[in-house]
Design a protein that fits this description.
- The protein has about 375 residues and is α+β, with helices and mostly antiparallel strands.
- The protein contains twelve helices and 18 strands.
- Strand 9 and strand 10 form a beta hairpin.
């Protein structure tokens, strides 16, 4: 994510150096949207609540109404810490530049002390993805802002649930190209008709949307490591045609890398695990394995992450790789044909390779025979 994209926020036009060293703040647990009607009061009572002033100030900004926003600003206003300027005209240019970029800001955890209000803020881009966050204080006098102090952080990896929500919300607007901007190059999409890479998925999503299909995604749960489960209802021209609670989406570095039903996810996890293992990416391979997993192969039985990691490191050292094909999935038991290779030498092959996946993690790896024994 580049600095200009992060710092579109109305009050965070910082130097690149400040953005690079800004500390990240945790996303606030409850966000209070400050979107709202474009009309806000242009006269402010002297005793106006500082929290209400802050919220209405950002309502006007989010609505793109510079005049309404500036009605809350004093002639001698100053901006410090996150910016350095003095006077209403300089402040107007500062705010107008941010409005021109677009997006929105949401406030949370507002705290009032006399004529001062402090709060957390989160900035979203036009796609609804959080791109920056921080804390801010506004000092009031006679119902107007006389001082703004902003401290900013960056959202290095946007909240997975927000990304999934945004993806489906954008699809429902029929803007497939914009939705696909939230996917990674190695994105895999699964639907009842097949499994698709990023290029093929863009085509398939377009076909689906043109057929009048929309999605109602609910009950989002972040299960950890960027994995989000959700319930879904599929509607065709407003009529419900399918529903369930086995949708799974995986996020990596703020991008979607898998989206589909849990049965397809289980095969995808097996494929990604062996792909990482063959590439010698041990940390990535281990990220797919449960802490209490059991692996059984001709060299022995390995229980728990530590023993499994040590055995996998040995395979890498010996140059062992795996070629899998013909995947079959029954309730999380993924069966496949396999070849075990050492360089160009075939060491073993069979049609009964088996990996068991539960809740997005591998809990057993071996063969149908060894699972029965285990």
């Amino acid at each position: 994510m580049n600095t200009k994209r992060i710092l579109f926020i109305l009050f965070v036009i910082l130097s690149q150096a400040l953005a690079a060293c800004g500390s990240a703040f945790p996303l606030p647990p409850t966000l209070v949207p400050v979107t709202g009607p474009t009309s806000v009061p242009t006269t402010i009572p002297e005793a106006a609540d500082p929290a209400a002033i802050a919220q209405n100030f950002y309502k006007a900004i989010n609505a793109g109404d510079i005049e309404a926003a500036m009605a809350f600003v004093a002639e001698d206003v100053k901006c410090r810490v996150g910016c350095y300027l003095t006077g209403k005209e300089s402040f107007r240019s500062f705010i107008q530049g941010s409005i021109n970029v677009g997006g929105r800001v949401e406030l949370s955890d507002l705290r009032v002390e006399g004529q001062k209000v402090s709060y957390n803020w989160t900035a979203y881009n036009k796609d609804g993805v959080p791109v920056a966050l921080g804390m801010e204080t506004l000092q009031m006098k006679n119902g107007q802002i006389i001082l703004m102090e902003t401290r900013t952080g960056t959202v290095k990896s946007a909240d997975p649930v927000t990304i999934v929500k945004s993806f489906y919300e954008i699809l429902n607007t029929k803007d497939v190209d914009r939705a696909m901007e939230l996917t990674a190059e190695d994105y895999v999409m699964n639907d009842p008709f097949g499994t698709y890479d990023q290029a093929a998925a863009a085509i398939q999503w377009q076909v689906v949307i043109e057929a009048g299909i929309t999605f109602n995604q609910t009950d989002f749960k972040d299960t950890g490591n960027g994995r989000v489960t959700s319930c879904y209802e599929v509607l065709e021209n407003g009529k419900s045609i399918d529903k369930g609670c086995d949708n799974v989406t995986h996020i990596r570095d703020g991008k979607i890398i898998f989206d589909g039903l849990e049965s397809a996810e289980q095969i995808w996890i097996v494929q990604k695990y062996y792909e990482a293992l063959n590439a010698g990416k041990l940390d990535l391979a281990m990220s797919f394995i449960a802490g209490d997993a059991v692996f059984i192969n001709p060299t022995g039985t390995y229980e728990g992450a530590d023993m499994i990691r040590e055995s996998l490191a040995g395979l890498n050292t010996d140059g062992i790789t795996f070629d899998l094909s013909n995947f079959r999935n029954t309730a999380g038991k993924v069966i496949y044909d396999y070849k075990v290779m050492q360089g160009t030498n075939l060491l073993d092959q069979s049609t009964n390779g088996l990996t068991v996946v539960k809740n997005g993690k591998i809990v057993f790896d071996g063969t149908e025979d060894t699972l029965t024994v285990q």
